[in-house]
Design goal:
The structure holds two protein chains of two kinds. By secondary structure, chain A is mostly helical. Chain A contains three helices and no strands. Chain B is mainly alpha-helical. Classes of the chains: A mainly alpha, B mainly alpha. Chains A and B meet through α1 of A and α27 of B.
Chain lengths: 102, 624
């Protein structure tokens, strides 16, 4: 029973996604929230690669490349926003970003 | 021709627009513009009257077209229209000139003269209109401009209330008028006056030629009485007469123009225009109502103290004479009396304006006295007006009023009795006014210090006095103006009992003048009639309780009903439907607002929660 089946990959993917989700929901630091988002995306990537392998086609792998590209772009924009936000508000904690709530 | 008619109609509108848009702050410019406009109207109107050579001129164009239905905009210049056009433009011009003097010190001249121009526009519209709907539109416009002008001194409670009263009471009559128009359209499939008349003629001639195969005549008494409601409201006849005396709260030239010479006469003009629609029953009802008004208003006028109210009741009474003449089947006499009345009543109103102006807005005749020596021009012209309205032989009122009396004597004795009693009363209250205000000694400081008014005010008085003297000789006027009145005048001239009528008519004004001299020759600050016949005096003062009855109706019946409706409205429409639907939307909004926490975690959570929801839907979790 030491063969690795697609199920194991899916469990790993789910765990990664779950950890990322918890990070997004719980963390106060926006930087860490962004990192957690990456984690979620990577969880999805793992699942897609596993599907690609199991299904013996390249659809999933191609999707992974798209996701990685988009994630890179998204992170750069996110970080830029974060820097701008820090310059303006001197804080990167989420509880200080509550203009809508008031 | 139609171009000239358009110019006549649109000149005052243009002047009113320019005044209201640009000249609000320039009273003097506005006044001159308005007077110049009135002069222009007079010139073009005269062209319009004489250019046709006495022929009827009709023109129309499509105004509004809806599927299968068309409303025209047209002019109809026939005899009555020419006569009224002459009265409106001529008397209107004189009153504009008089206003220059009377309103010289007013703060809101621009508003006043703008209002006058709007009035001229509306009144000319009624005069020229060729169909009932157009008449109705301008009918409402004169009501509106009358409201504007009565409320000129809007800071006084009296004027504010009077303007509302005039407007609302007129609305009652106009509602009947509107029903009448609808009935007419239903019966004839058109509202054009000429077409209706032609249809009626066809029906009547067909019925004469084919006695076995009659067509039902679509005219009913209900139809013409509904149309007559418009006349009753606008001409302030029983039972809607209550607004006219109150309307005297407006500036005096307005009372002269609108509430004596032209607008109230528009009711008579309307009757004459739709005369062919009237059945015999409706005519006799109008005759009795008019004659009754002639007498009733006389009694009211006898006990008033306010100079303008006396003249207002006198106007009511004279309008009653016109209505009676119309009811007797003599519309030409009504028109002729309309014209002479416009001359001498405008003269007296302007004379009273001159007096009021000289006495610093004192209007109680018992505070005048001895004004003949202070302001002779005003006094003598006023006296001419008094003589004319009393029917003194060979003045204008004598010809028009005695013609009505004579035809009543020959056609309908009850109407004659009422009118004749009214004629005696007319002489009595008019000479009462004259003796108290102009003769004797001055009874107040204002009257002592009175002085003759400026030429701008006395010149129109002189012109009107001249017309009041000669206005009765219809042969002096061009046929284009009085053509509509001549046939009926000829009929009356051929009637019996002429000499007898002259004696009776002369007797009436002599009784009036002697009675007034005896009763009011020497007065103090109180009315001598109140001491001699207190019960009669009180009855006349009460004006037969019409105001009280209407007041009771409004307060005790209409107001509670309105409040009941209001409660229903608040409960069901604004409560249940408006607030109810808004409340449901509000509930959803509350729910949505609860999600806006201002915490980024919460948004992320909702986002993912929502995504999961979509996912669940996509895999068929909700059983789809």
């Amino acid at each position: 029973m030491n063969t690795i089946t697609p199920h194991h990959f899916l469990i790993l993917a789910f765990l990664l996604f779950g950890v990322g989700f918890l990070g997004v929901v719980i963390r106060r630091n926006v930087l860490l929230v962004l990192m957690s988002l990456e984690l979620m995306l990577n969880g999805i990537n793992v699942a897609l690669v596993a599907f690609s392998r199991a299904g013996a086609n390249l659809d999933g792998s191609i999707f992974v490349f798209f996701i990685m590209t988009v994630a890179a772009a998204e992170v750069s924009v996110g970080l830029a926003l974060l820097v701008a936000l820090y310059k303006k508000r001197k804080s990167i904690f989420t509880e200080d970003m509550n203009l809508l709530g008031n | 021709m139609e171009t000239v008619a358009f110019i006549v109609l649109l000149l005052p509108l243009l002047s009113a627009c320019v005044t209201l848009l640009f000249l609000r702050k320039h009273g003097n410019v506005a006044a001159l513009l308005s007077v110049a406009t009135a002069g222009g109207i007079l010139a073009f109107s005269l062209y319009l009257i004489f250019a046709g050579g006495g022929e009827t001129f009709a023109w129309e164009a499509t105004w509004i077209r809806m599927s299968g239905w068309e409303l025209s905009f047209g002019f109809l210049m026939d005899g009555p229209a020419r006569l009224l056009l002459f009265v409106v433009s001529f008397v209107g011009f004189l009153i504009h000139v008089f206003s220059l003097g009377y309103m010289a010190d007013d703060d809101a001249k621009a508003r006043y003269f703008g209002g006058l121009s709007i009035f001229m526009f509306s009144m000319l519209g009624i005069t020229l209109a060729d169909n009932l709907i157009m008449i109705f539109v301008f009918w409402e416009l004169v009501g509106f401009s009358s409201y504007l002008l009565i409320a000129h001194y809007y800071s006084t409670n009296e004027a504010a209330q009077a303007s509302k009263k005039a407007f609302i009471v007129n609305r009652v009559g106009d509602f009947g008028f509107l029903i009448g128009i609808v009935l007419t359209y239903w019966a004839f499939d058109t509202v054009n006056l000429v077409e209706i008349e032609n249809q009626l003629k066809d029906i009547v001639s067909w019925n004469l030629e084919n006695p076995q195969n009659q067509i039902l005549n679509p005219v009913t008494t209900a139809l013409c009485l509904a149309l007559a409601c418009g006349f009753i409201g606008k001409s302030a006849q029983f039972p809607l007469h209550v607004w006219l005396p109150d309307a005297m709260a407006g500036p005096t030239p307005v009372s002269a123009l609108i509430h004596a010479a032209t607008m109230v006469a528009a009711g008579i003009f309307l009757l004459v225009r739709i005369e062919f629609l009237f059945t015999a029953q409706a005519l006799s009802l109008i005759a009795i109502l008019g004659a009754g008004m002639g007498l009733y208003a006389g009694f009211c006028a006898l006990v008033q103290r306010d100079i303008k109210k006396i003249l207002a009741y006198s106007t009511l009474s004279q309008l009653g004479y016109m209505a009676a003449a119309f009811g007797l089947g003599m519309p030409g006499l009504a028109l002729f009396h309309l014209m002479t009345h416009a001359f001498f009543k405008a003269l007296m109103f302007l004379g009273s304006g001159s007096v009021i102006h000289a006495c610093h807005h004192e209007q109680d005749i018992f505070n005048y006295g001895g004004l003949r020596r202070k302001m002779p021009l005003t006094a003598y012209t006023f006296l001419i007006g008094v003589l004319a309205i009393s029917g003194v032989n060979f003045l204008s009122g004598y010809f028009s009023k005695d013609a009505i009396l004579l035809s009543a004597y020959n056609l309908n004795i009850p109407v004659f009795v009422l009118l004749y009693a009214g004629a005696i009363l007319t002489a009595l209250y008019m000479f009462r006014l004259y003796f108290i205000a102009f003769e004797g000694e001055a009874r107040s400081k204002n009257a002592k210090n009175a002085h003759e008014s400026p030429t701008l005010m006395t010149a129109p008085l002189l012109v009107l006095a001249f017309l009041s003297v000669i206005g009765g000789y219809h042969a002096l006027f061009p046929d284009a103006i009085v053509g509509a009145a001549v046939p009926d005048l000829t009929v009356v001239a051929g009637m019996d009992n002429h000499l007898w009528m002259i004696v009776l008519g002369t007797l009436a004004w002599i009784i009036g003048i002697v009675g007034a001299k005896n009763l009011y020759g020497k007065v103090g600050q109180t009315d001598p009639l109140a001491a001699k016949a207190p019960a009669f005096f009180a009855l006349c003062r009460s004006k037969l309780f019409f105001d009280d009855i209407y007041d009771f109706y409004v307060r005790r019946i209409q107001d509670p009903f309105a409040r009941f409706i209001e409660v229903m409205e608040m409960l069901f429409i604004s409560g249940l439907m408006v607030r109810g639907s808004a409340g449901i939307a509000g509930l959803f909004a509350l729910l949505g607002r609860a999600c806006y926490l201002g915490k980024i975690h919460a948004y992320a959570f909702w986002f993912i929660f929502g995504t999961l929801g979509f996912l669940a839907y996509a895999v068929g979790f909700f059983g789809n």
